[in-house]
């Protein structure tokens, strides 16, 4: 899933009186020390505290603000995912411009003095659409993802030959700030268990990045996952949560890595939100207390993730004189002796088991080196269609907000949790000089009235200018090369249906929501793992349309080959329907080109039910501050402002009730154009309400209508 953080070169005095080794200004290195069970940076034992940030979830104008706040929190490194599908939307077509300029983001981290732990996949999870893998891989329906399948490896190799040459000059050994690179992600949890695939990746990463960079893997503590997810030549790290037995968990790492730093790459203290479930939150007091407890034991805590990267994590304010086999004899500041003795007793227990060396224990107590990671330190937003989904007995799509109850909020504001964490960190190492940058200003722009522009079915000429695809049976999104968004499936009733008759789909064949219209009248919604039938009446030849919505491909779960659209045929009273017209919609292209604001509204006598576009405008009072938009009385849909796709709203399902609107997408001195695609039903008085704070935690029943 995730992790990351800031790096600090500060080290406490070693147990001996020998002078600290001096790093050559020309010899830059970051490596493992298997003798002392620690990391070494430029030859010196080293620790860092890090936190995760996903540049793809943060508008580029906000990158500096977020990174500076992470730095001022006391972090020394950031952990960064690279989503393959964000940069290669079509085979061989690459996009590294604007918000996708990963090189500019990495250069900014270096400018601010942050180290980077890079996680380039090719699979990343991250609750991101398809775990970062491009959906066009599924154009070959029998492809085996994350395996030695030749078709998959060919695509991976092509991508790595584009990405990794951009990374190599930024490695620490080459004068950059990237200290380590993860290969794959939690591969042991994937069913394939293909060590040939991992060997192929190792060879590719070494060929393209060189022999000096530290490469690592991350897996759970389960023996089977460690067996499948680790490989000689890749340093094996683990992840576990706050309820785990630390000794047993690190014992699992020692099973695959008998020597070297103990590392928890992901320690979760919070979680993401799924549509239809309560907003995840974590007690500030619990997080701060847990952080301090672990730092006193030499660990580091990261907002959603804690990593115990490295051997000496603690930086306790004491200096050990010698190791006596049971308890070091410290000269400590008041109040630290008991903690120091506890650590040394626990460390002696680990040393007897062969998990650590005696020097490791003294290293912990003197703070020679160590690491922590937090996942997430700043979550951000799943703009457009980038939110993924988990599969846990059922399909669980992720909300547009990726707030994660993180120390920095979705809007990048320091929270009480951040200041609590910062206070704890300050007890163990100096904080950067200067104040924490303030929250970005917010503005409540108020109510904006909207008007209906057109029913979706009346705009197919604009949304699908190439016209429909004809097929006897429905085709998947992947079969018609549609990555995201929406597709209309159209056929006709084959006979008169004079009594309410069941229109149904086979189990698991609606991926993910289907909005049914007969003669352009909305009849109901079909849903994956939910309602799969509606009742219809009509005459032979009546037009039946089903608008299929892709809610995000599975990023973690039993199977990430998550095809979208109608995966099976619809049946009318058990008789399969045939002869379909299939319209792949490119709504974003139309909106970015000025539609529908540049077009005249299309008159419709139909009401507010069913898929339709609504438009409106508002002007800012001479400023473009961040804001949050609420949808009073709306059902579910998609929002664009000035052509920027802000993501999915779904107040009927919850918990998220507002969408974050970055000030950078707004205009000053000219109207801001709002486009809403409502899918089920707009309120009688369609308006949006712009607020200066978000509303997250309102979960409603699946059939409940949200009212103001």
Explain the overall architecture.
- Helix content is 19%, strand content 25%.
- By secondary structure, it is of the alpha+beta class.
- The strands form 8 sheets. Strands 1, 2, 3, 4, 5, 6, 7, 8, 9, 10 and 13 form an 11-stranded mixed beta sheet that branches. The protein has a 6-stranded antiparallel beta sheet with strand order 18-30-19-25-22-23, with no helix packed on it. A 5-stranded antiparallel beta sheet has the order 17-31-36-33-34.
- α7 links the parallel β9 (235-239) and β10.
- The model is unreliable at 2-25, 297-348, 356-370 and 700-708 (pLDDT under 50).
List keywords for this structure.
708 residues, alpha+beta, eleven-stranded mixed β-sheet, six-stranded antiparallel β-sheet, 13 helices
Low confidence ranges = 2-25, 297-348, 356-370, 700-708
The total count of helices amounts to 13
- Supply Rg: 27 Å
Q: Give the class from helix and strand content and strand pairing.
A: alpha+beta
Strand segment count: 37
Report the mean per-residue pLDDT as an integer: 85
Net shape: globular
Straight-line N-to-C gap: 37 Å
Biggest sheet statistics: 11 strands, mixed
- The percent range for helix content is 10-25%
Strand content: 25-35%
Write the layout of secondary structure elements.
Elements: E1 5-8, E2 30-33, E3 38-41, E4 44-53, H1 63-72, E5 77-81, H2 84-87, H3 102-111, E6 115-119, H4 150-167, E7 178-182, H5 195-209, E8 214-219, H6 223-229, E9 235-239, H7 246-256, E10 264-266, H8 284-296, E11 318-320, E12 330-332, H9 337-352, H10 358-366, E13 370-378, E14 389-391, E15 395-397, H11 416-426, E16 446-449, E17 451-455, H12 460-463, E18 469-471, E19 486-492, E20 497-504, E21 510-511, E22 513-518, E23 521-527, E24 533-538, E25 543-549, E26 554-556, E27 565-566, E28 571-572, E29 575-576, E30 580-584, H13 587-592, E31 612-618, E32 627-630, E33 637-641, E34 644-649, E35 658-661, E36 672-678, E37 687-691
Parallel strand pairs: 4-5, 4-13, 5-6, 6-7, 7-8, 8-9, 9-10, 14-26
Antiparallel strand pairs: 1-4, 2-3, 3-4, 11-12, 14-15, 16-37, 17-31, 18-30, 19-25, 19-30, 20-24, 20-28, 21-27, 22-23, 22-25, 28-29, 31-36, 32-35, 32-37, 33-34, 33-36
Helix pairs in contact: 4-5, 8-11, 9-10
């Amino acid at each position: 899933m995730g992790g990351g953080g800031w790096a600090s070169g500060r080290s406490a005095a070693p147990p001996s009186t020998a002078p600290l080794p001096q790093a050559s200004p020309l010899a830059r290195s970051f490596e493992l020390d298997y003798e002392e069970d620690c990391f070494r940076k430029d030859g010196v034992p080293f620790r860092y505290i890090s936190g995760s940030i996903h540049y793809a979830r943060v508008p580029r104008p906000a990158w500096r603000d977020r990174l500076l706040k992470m730095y001022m929190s006391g972090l020394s490194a950031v952990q960064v995912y690279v989503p393959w599908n964000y940069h290669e939307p079509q085979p061989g077509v690459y996009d590294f411009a604007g918000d996708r300029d990963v090189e500019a983001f990495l250069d900014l981290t270096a400018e601010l003095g942050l180290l980077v732990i890079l996680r380039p996949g090719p699979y990343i999870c991250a609750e991101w659409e398809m775990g970062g893998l491009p959906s066009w891989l599924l154009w070959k329906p029998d492809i085996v993802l994350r395996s030695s399948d030749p078709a998959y490896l060919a695509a991976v190799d092509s991508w790595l030959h584009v990405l990794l040459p951009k990374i190599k000059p930024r490695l620490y050994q080459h004068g950059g700030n990237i200290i380590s690179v993860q290969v794959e992600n939690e591969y042991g949890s994937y069913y394939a268990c293909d060590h040939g695939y991992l060997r192929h990746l190792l060879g590719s990463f070494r060929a393209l990045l060189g022999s000096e960079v530290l490469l690592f893997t991350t897996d759970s503590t389960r023996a089977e996952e460690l067996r499948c997810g680790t490989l000689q030549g890749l340093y094996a790290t683990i992840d576990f949560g706050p309820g785990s037995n630390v000794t047993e968990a690190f014992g699992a790492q020692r099973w695959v890595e008998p020597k070297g730093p103990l590392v928890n790459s992901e320690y979760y203290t919070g979680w993401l939100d799924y549509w239809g479930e309560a907003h995840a939150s974590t007690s500030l007091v619990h997080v701060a207390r847990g952080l301090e407890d672990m730092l006193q034991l030499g660990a580091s805590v990261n907002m959603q993730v804690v990593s115990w990267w490295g051997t000496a994590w603690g930086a306790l304010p004491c200096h050990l004189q010698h190791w006596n086999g049971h308890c070091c004899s410290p000269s400590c500041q008041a109040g630290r002796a008991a903690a120091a003795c506890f650590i040394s007793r626990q460390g002696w227990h680990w040393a007897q088991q062969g998990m650590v060396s005696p020097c490791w224990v003294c290293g912990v107590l003197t703070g020679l080196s160590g690491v922590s990671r937090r996942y997430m330190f700043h979550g951000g937003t799943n703009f457009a269609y980038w939110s993924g989904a988990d599969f846990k007995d059922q399909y669980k799509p992720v909300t547009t907000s990726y707030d994660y109850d993180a120390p920095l909020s979705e809007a990048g504001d320091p929270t009480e949790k951040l200041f609590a964490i910062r206070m704890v960190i300050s007890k163990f190492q100096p904080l950067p000089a200067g104040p924490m940058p303030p929250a970005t200003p917010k503005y409540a722009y108020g109510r904006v009235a909207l008007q209906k522009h057109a029913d979706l079915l009346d705009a197919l000429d604009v949304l699908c200018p190439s016209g429909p695809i004809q097929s006897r049976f429905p085709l998947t999104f992947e079969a018609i090369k549609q990555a995201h968004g929406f597709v209309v499936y159209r056929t006709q009733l084959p006979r008169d249906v004079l009594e309410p008759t069941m229109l149904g789909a086979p189990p698991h064949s609606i991926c993910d929501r289907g909005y049914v219209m007969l003669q352009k009248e909305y009849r109901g919604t079909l849903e994956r793992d939910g309602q799969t039938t509606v009742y219809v009446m009509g005459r032979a030849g009546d037009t039946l349309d089903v608008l299929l919505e892709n809610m995000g491909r599975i990023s973690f779960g039993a199977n990430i080959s998550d095809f979208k659209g109608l995966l099976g045929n619809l049946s009318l009273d058990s008789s399969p329907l045939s002869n379909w017209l299939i319209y792949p919609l490119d709504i974003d292209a139309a909106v970015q080109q000025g539609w529908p604001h540049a077009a005249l509204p299309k008159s419709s006598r139909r009401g507010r039910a069913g898929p339709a576009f609504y438009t409106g405008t508002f002007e800012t009072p001479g400023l473009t501050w961040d804001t949050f938009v609420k949808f009073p009385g709306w059902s579910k849909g998609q929002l664009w402002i000035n052509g920027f796709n802000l993501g999915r709203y779904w107040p009927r399902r919850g918990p998220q009730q507002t969408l974050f609107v970055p000030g950078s997408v707004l205009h000053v001195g000219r109207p801001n154009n709002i486009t809403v695609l409502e899918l089920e039903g707009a309120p009688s008085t369609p308006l949006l309400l712009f607020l200066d704070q978000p509303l997250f935690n309102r979960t409603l029943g699946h059939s409940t209508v949200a009212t103001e």
